[in-house]
Design a protein that fits this description.
Distance between the termini of chain B: 31 Å
Number of strands of chain B: 4
CATH architecture of chain B: 3-Layer(aba) Sandwich
CATH class of chain A: Alpha Beta
CATH topology of chain B: Glutaredoxin
Strand content of chain A: 25-35%
Order of helices and strands of chain A: HEEEEEHEEEEEHEH
Shape of chain A: globular
CATH architecture of chain A: 3-Layer(aba) Sandwich
Number of strands of chain A: 11
CATH topology of chain A: Protein Transport Mog1p, Chain A
Shape of chain B: globular
Number of domains of chain B: 1
Order of helices and strands of chain B: HHEHEHEEH
CATH superfamily of chain B: Glutaredoxin
Radius of gyration of chain B: 14 Å
Oligomer: heterodimer
Helix content of chain B: 40-55%
Chain lengths: ~200, ~100
């Protein structure tokens, strides 16, 4: 009996080791049968595939964000990282999409001391409505870094929301644009499960 | 301030107006307002008189942190909260006050 208990305890410990070695599913308990996740009981989307990781947020600039480094066959060394995020309250205040993108880039990555090239904007569709995509490159000339930025401004009710893609690289390295495909798949999968606070405020 | 600017259309619907109040001087506020693209007034309150007049600041007590104050149409302070503005809480109260106005 004692031997059986020791064996059982050992198996339990081994199982514990195996479990701790595997990364925890950040969406455990949120997954639906359709391959999507329900986030904060308000959003539904397909999570970003590996090697993207969910970012733990300690501020309210974004509702959700994913991150990946360059350690997966992409070129470059630090700074070498990409981020995808969704924000309910992107910088700026106008409800006109084109005006909003102008306001946005006056504040975005301000603390990183980035000079942005003039954004190239084009109409696109997102969240089942008209949207505006803005592409630019920011230059951090002191540290000799650069950042590739694509922002899709869309509407939720009356208000403007935004999806961000950023990718940092050393100034002398090429960008890797392949992760942008994941970004667009994320946007296409993204939807709302209930009206926003502002829609309910009416 | 940018959050208030973003919500101006909702403040209008609730018959509310927003003004920023600061200890800074007029040239500083003018620059700040232009830089942020604000369209609502910023008041230079270098002596702190405005806060004391409305009962939102004790006399002789300097205020260095952010404070949100909501004053109803009868001049009564209905809300004071220190720290970053809680925009949702503000909007819900403005909606309630607007409903009270309709009943008065």
């Amino acid at each position: 009996m004692i031997r059986a208990l020791v064996t059982a305890a050992a198996l339990f410990l081994l199982a514990g080791c195996a479990a701790s070695g595997a990364p925890a599913d950040p969406f455990a308990g949120m997954r639906t049968g359709e391959g999507t996740v329900v986030w904060q009981k308000e959003y539904e989307f397909s999570p970003m595939p590996e090697p993207w990781r969910l970012l733990e947020l300690d501020e309210e600039d974004y509702s959700i964000a994913f991150f990946r480094s360059c350690d997966h066959g992409t070129p470059g060394n630090y700074p070498c990282e990409s981020m995808v995020a969704y924000a309910e309250e992107p910088f700026g205040y106008s409800r006109d999409l084109n005006q909003r993108q102008k306001e946005f880039f006056r504040r975005f990555l301000w603390a990183a001391r980035v000079d942005f090239d003039e954004p190239r904007v084009q109409p696109v569709r997102a969240l089942e409505g008209e949207a505006l995509q803005a592409d630019t490159i920011g230059h951090e000339r002191v540290l000799k870094h650069k950042v590739l930025v694509r922002v899709v401004f869309a509407r939720r009710g009356e208000r403007v929301v935004a999806f961000y893609f950023t990718q940092w690289r050393p100034s002398d390295k090429e960008f890797d644009r392949a992760p942008m495909e994941d970004f667009h798949r994320f946007i296409e999968s993204f939807g709302y499960l209930k009206p926003s606070f502002y829609q309910r405020l009416q | 301030m940018e959050g208030h600017q973003r919500n101006l259309y909702l403040y209008d619907r609730f018959n509310a107006r927003v003004a920023g109040v600061s200890h800074d001087g007029v040239p500083t506020l003018r620059h700040w307002s232009d830089d942020l693209g604000l369209t609502f007034p910023l008041l230079s309150n270098t002596t702190g008189y405005l806060g004391m007049f409305f009962g939102a600041q004790h006399k002789g007590t300097p205020m260095f942190a952010r404070r949100t104050v909501i004053i109803d149409m009868w001049g009564k302070v209905r809300y004071i909260k220190d720290g970053s503005p809680d925009y949702r809480e503000i909007l819900l109260l403005l909606k309630k006050l607007h409903a009270e106005e309709g009943r008065s």
